Every structure is written in C-alpha cells, then in structure tokens.
Amino acid sequence: MEFRGKDREMRFFCESLLFLAISLLFGCSNLPHKEEAIAEVNGEKISVGEYLGLIETLKPKDMGMDKRDRGELKNLVIKTLIRRQVILTEAKRTKVLLTDLELESGIEKFKAGYTAGAFEQSLLEQMVDEASWREKIKQNLLIEKMFELSKPKIPEPTTEEALAFYGSNRR
After folding, report:
1. Is the pTM of this model over 0.70?
2. Helices (H), the chain
3. Please, are residues 22 and 38 in contact by the beta-carbon 8 Å criterion?
4. Comparing 28-37, 53-62, 152-161, which segment has the lowest mean pLDDT?
5. Rounded to 5 degrees, what angle do the CA atoms 77, 152, 85 make?
6. Which value, in Å, is the radius of gyration of the alpha carbons in the chain?
7. What per-residue confidence (pLDDT) applies to 104?
8. CA-closest candidate to residue 39, choices 3, 91, 74
9. First vs last C-alpha separation in the chain
C-alpha cells in the first residue's frame, strides 16, 4: 500500500505522535497498565500490551541487546503496529471481511504445523488464551486479504500474445 500526499503526512504525524507517546510513557518511573492506549490511529487504540507483546515476540531470547539495538527494535515495533492498524482500519472502512471458511481454513493451516498437544503447549508458553490467538490470526488473515485485493490485476496473455512475444524475443 503506497501513501501519497495527505495520507503520507497523516501517517508521518501518527508515527511521530506514537513515538512521542511511547517515549513519554516509558521515560517515567511508573509503568503504564497493559490496557492503556499508547497511541491512536484513525480512532483505533494501540495498547501498551500490544506493544510489549510484539517486543517480546521480536526480541532475541538468547542474547542481550545494546541500547542502539533496543532503540531500533522499539522503532520497528512502533512502525509495525501503526502500519498494521492503518491496514485494519482501511479494511474496516472498505468493509473487507473474512468469511468463516477463510478464517477456519487459515487457522487449520496454522495449526497443521504443530503435533498433537504442541499447539496448546505453545499457547501456554506464550501465556495466550485461544480466543486472543484466534483474534490475532483473524487480523493477520485480514491483512493478507487486503494485500491480495490491492495487488494490480494483470490479465493472463493469450496464446497469440505469448507466441508473438516469443517470436520477437528469440535470439
């Protein structure tokens, strides 16, 4: 999705505002509650919990990070959350929805990568209930659908067009 003109300015403004909000929140000694909003994108809130959850997901588990790397990771997380919310808001605005079949098919594809009991164990390790996990999967599938719908439609060439191209490009 490419942003132009006012949309680009609005996106930059939202990213800047979010960065400022997070800087202020985490610069204070009192940590905010996970449900508190750290930013708002087109009227939709991004919570501290979403921010911290994504940081935990992306942070390398087995090695420490220096201050610069932590800063880059925080910036990546902020940008990711903003982009994600912009796409989900656009899906809502344009009334793009997932069918029950698309959702169940996507969930089954994801679960297919796990052995018996491993899926539930993974949820326990991440301290996520299945309803929250399903909602995240639904959002991810909706984002994928938005990207699919935004791809340019390129018609398949006819046999005559393919033969003409081949003939004119033979060596």
Report:
1. no
2. 5-27, 48-58, 67-93, 100-111, 118-126, 130-150, 159-168
3. yes
4. 28-37
5. 25
6. 21
7. 94
8. 74
9. 38
CB-based contacts of 123: which residues, under 8 Å, 6+ apart? Answer: 129, 130, 133
* Local confidence band at 115 (pLDDT 50, 70, 90 cut-offs): confident
**Amino acid identity for residue 24 in this structure:** L
- Placement of tokens 């939709």 in the chain: 44
Spatial distance between the Cα atoms of 55 and 61, rounded to a whole number of angstroms: 11
Residues 6+ apart with CB under 8 A from 34: 47, 48, 49, 52
User: What's the pLDDT tens digit per position in 128-157?
Assistant: 888 888 999 999 999 999 999 988 888 999
Mean pLDDT of 21-30: 59
What is the chain's length? 171
Residue 31's closest CA among 52, 46, 15, 45? Answer: 52
Angle CA 85–139–3, to nearest 5: 35
Q: How confident is the model at residue 61 (pLDDT cuts 50, 70, 90)?
A: low
